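ok new one. same drill as before - C-alpha cells go in, u give me an amino acid for every spot. 98 of them this time. try not to just spam alanines like last time pls lmao
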C-alpha cells in the first residue's frame, strides 16, 4: 500500500525501536522513507512511574523506511481532546528481525 494518500495529513508512526512519533507527513518514497513536519515524540510513562508522560518537539524529522513499523492517520479532533501528560501505558517493545 502506498502512503501517498497520507501526504499533507497528520500521521502517527511507531518505529522499530518502539518510539511513537506524530507529525505532518510531508514526503515518502517506495522504501517507506518518511519526512515529517511539526513532529513530536510521545513518551508514555507506565502507571507506576511518578513522572508525567511527555511530548518532545522534534520539528522536521526524517525516518528511514527500515525503522517504520506502523504508519496511520490521526483523528485530529480526538487527538486534540487528549491530555497526553495524563496518559499511562505499558512500554511498546521494539521489532525483532530474524
Amino acid at each position: 500500500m502506498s502512503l501517498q494518500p497520507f501526504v499533507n495529513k497528520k500521521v502517527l508512526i511507531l518505529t522499530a525501536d518502539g518510539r511513537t512519533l506524530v507529525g505532518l507527513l510531508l514526503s515518502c518514497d517506495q522504501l517507506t522513507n518518511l519526512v515529517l513536519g511539526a513532529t513530536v515524540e510521545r513518551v508514555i510513562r507506565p502507571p507506576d512511574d511518578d513522572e508525567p508522560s511527555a511530548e518532545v518537539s522534534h520539528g522536521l524529522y526524517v525516518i528511514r523506511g527500515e525503522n517504520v513499523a506502523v504508519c496511520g492517520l490521526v483523528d485530529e479532533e480526538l487527538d486534540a481532546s487528549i491530555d497526553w501528560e495524563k496518559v499511562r501505558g505499558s512500554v511498546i517493545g521494539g521489532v525483532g528481525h530474524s
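Strands lie at 10-15, 20-28, 34-43, 54-63, 68-73. and btw The chain has one helix and five strands.
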